Amino acid sequence: MVVFDCERMKHPNTGLYVFCDNVAGNLVKQKASLIDGLGFFAPAACVGRWGENVAYMTVRQGYKVFMPRFEKVRVWHSAYQLTRYIPPKPIRQILTVHDLNFLYEKPKYKHDRYLWALQKHIDRADYIVAISESTKLDLMNNVDLRGKYVEVVYNGLNHFAGDIVPPGKVPQGKFLFTVGTVLPKKNFHVLPALLTDNEYSLIIAGNRSAYADRIMEEAEKWGVSSRVHIVGPVPESVKFWYIKNCSAFMFPSVAEGFGLPVIEAMYYQKPIFLSDHTALPEIGGPDAFYFDHDFNPDIMRQQFRTGMEAYEKGVVDMESMKNRALSFSWERTARRYIEIYNELSAGGGK
């Protein structure tokens, strides 16, 4: 049996939740291609989520200390690079590495501790996957791969099939939108400065933290606090309403292994403004605008104006933008993982 570890789905409204849910759903659709059966290691709330014709193992806290020897399991896919749930040998393990964001968001004195933990996982893994070339490069530069090959398997585009629903309080007038857990690495505090010479509002959706205060301090500094709204987490139906109706999508993050919301906004052919840090230039490619590397507010304002003018004049190739979004496919992601599972089940691997 192949087991896909979805333990991280205990945290809704996160990129890891989206990754696990989409990979799991597409593995089920393609499980006829598997040599072995398919199972999921999941929180109790997710048991049964992907149908009844697969096996489910419920996450138990005690498994962090001692993982049982699952006799029928031959391949274990760890979907998080610092997982606490390690399969015992001889089960073969695939490790998906999403990012080394601690290098960008944690103080340097903490790096060694995280790198030590990551190195243990690298040493245990039989096959290593990174979700972007940027993450692969970070791995190559910061851990000892022991000669192991790292394959890049991109994430996919989320196609929302349900009804798009407006928020309870619909924004009045034109607005800019961004989404993500409200943490310093998302760098949202650089965005209020963009509102000083226009009438746009800024909507930020995502799980809140104390960092929200820093964002509002910047809004006060620039005299735009009445037009900056941190709305907290929203359901997918509302998130896609914001994406579909915004004037532009903003993502100034300084630490991303991929950046799923970027391709979601590209699919809706919105002007995209990104930082040029970590994986974002790789994902946005030539179909996005990029802010000043050091986030100088005067330069950013000019870049924003120039980008919006180009978009409004039809200079931006919107068809290219949508095609780029469509080039990322969860179906293709799951298909490649199944090929890796089959290779490991048969005793292969790089």
Q: Going by CATH, what is the homologous superfamily of the largest domain?
A: Glycogen Phosphorylase B
Q: Tell me which CATH architecture of the largest domain applies here.
A: 3-Layer(aba) Sandwich
Q: pLDDT average, as an integer?
A: 96
Radius of gyration: 21 Å
Report the helical percentage: 25-40%
Helix/strand class: alpha/beta
Largest sheet: 7 strands, parallel
Strand order of the largest sheet: 3-2-1-4-5-6-7
- DSSP summary: helix tally: 11
What oligomeric state is this? single chain
Write a concise keyword list for the protein shown above.
Rossmann fold; 7-stranded parallel beta sheet; 15% strand; 6-stranded parallel beta sheet
Description:
- By secondary structure, the chain is an alpha/beta fold.
- It has two domains: 172 residues, Rossmann fold (3-Layer(aba) Sandwich); 152 residues, 3-Layer(aba) Sandwich (Rossmann fold), CATH 3.40.50.
- The chain contains eleven helices and 13 strands.
- The strands form two sheets. It has a seven-stranded parallel sheet with strand order 3-2-1-4-5-6-7, with helices on both faces. A six-stranded parallel sheet has the order 10-9-8-11-12-13, sandwiched between helices.
- The model has no long low-confidence stretch (mean pLDDT 96).
